[in-house]
Design a protein that fits this description.
With 263 residues, the protein is an alpha/beta fold. It has a single domain, classed as Rossmann fold (3-Layer(aba) Sandwich), CATH 3.40.50.1820. Helix content is 36%, strand content 12%. Strands 1-3-4-5-6 form a five-stranded parallel β-sheet, with helices on both faces. Strands 2-7 form a two-stranded parallel sheet. The longest helix has 14 residues. The two termini are 12 Å apart.
């Protein structure tokens, strides 16, 4: 199962997010609460989302599976491993949302519906595409190579339409992401791999390292460059994810994606 981050949806797991899933696996790619086809319920907390994931797996008659989570999706993925460990054979957290010593800066909450609106993003796409590419979380002066440039184009194009992703993104940014500060990582029993880039400007590298250190037996993979979203292109990281998943699962022959809208 692939769990997307902000401005994502079920399409992430069979698009950009599919890159980090080894060949030969089918993919379950749900939209989290408030994203692309999934409503924002009265309780959209990561814990409630984790319970919904468990119900989804039960509905699909899947006992357990590897879970690969990106960025803000890490919160509900960790909750799934805490609340329903029997459902998660392996947990992979890539560029994860992690506890931070102090609140990260963000625009005023009142401005969020305007910032994360379709007209604003369309204008930026047409007039300031580099600003949208800045959502990749790379450091100032980062010069992408040809492969990274192509990935950035895919990432920016994959943000649209923005409207169906806005409510979940705003919830993540102002409430959901902060929730992870209270998680008892020391209680995790699921084998866990954490991947982080040293130059990530959105999810600080040291936060990921500190979180991994609290998870019993967790493996940590450090990527030199890639910012927040381009870690998926690092060959050593991709191999580490594949090896980690293969170690806990038998390869599934059919690689057909399984789309699952709704949390």
């Amino acid at each position: 199962m692939v769990v997307h981050g902000v401005l994502g949806g079920f399409d992430f797991g069979v698009g950009v997010g599919r890159v980090n899933v080894p060949a030969g696996y089918r993919i379950i790619s749900p939209s989290r609460f408030g994203f692309f086809g999934s409503p924002l319920p009265p309780d959209p907390s990561p814990a409630a989302q984790a319970d919904a994931f468990a119900e989804l797996l039960g509905h699909l008659e899947i006992a357990e599976l590897p879970v690969v989570a990106f960025s803000a999706g890490s919160s509900s993925a960790v909750q799934l491993a805490l609340r329903h460990p029997e459902r998660v054979s392996r947990l992979v957290l890539i560029s994860p949302n992690a506890p931070h010593p102090e609140p990260l800066s963000k625009p005023p909450r009142l401005l969020a519906p305007i910032i994360f609106s379709q007209p604003v993003f369309w204008a930026m796409r047409l007039l300031a595409r580099s600003r949208l590419e800045g959502l990749s979380g790379t450091a100032a002066g980062f010069v992408p190579d040809e492969g990274e440039r192509a990935a950035l184009r895919d990432i920016v194009d994959g943000l649209f339409p923005v409207g169906p992703r806005a409510r979940g993104t705003i919830y993540d940014g102002y409430i959901g992401n902060v929730d992870i500060a209270t998680y008892p990582f020391e209680s995790l029993t699921v084998p866990t791999l954490v991947v982080a880039a040293e130059d990530d400007t959105l999810a600080p590298y040291e936060d990921s390292r500190a979180m991994a250190a609290r998870i019993p037996g967790a493996q940590f993979v450090s990527v030199r460059r890639g910012g927040h979203t381009l870690t998926q292109l690092d060959p050593s990281a991709r191999q580490a994810v594949a090896d980690f998943i293969h170690a806990g699962q038998q390869l599934v022959a059919d690689g057909t994606p399984v789309l699952a809208q709704g949390g």
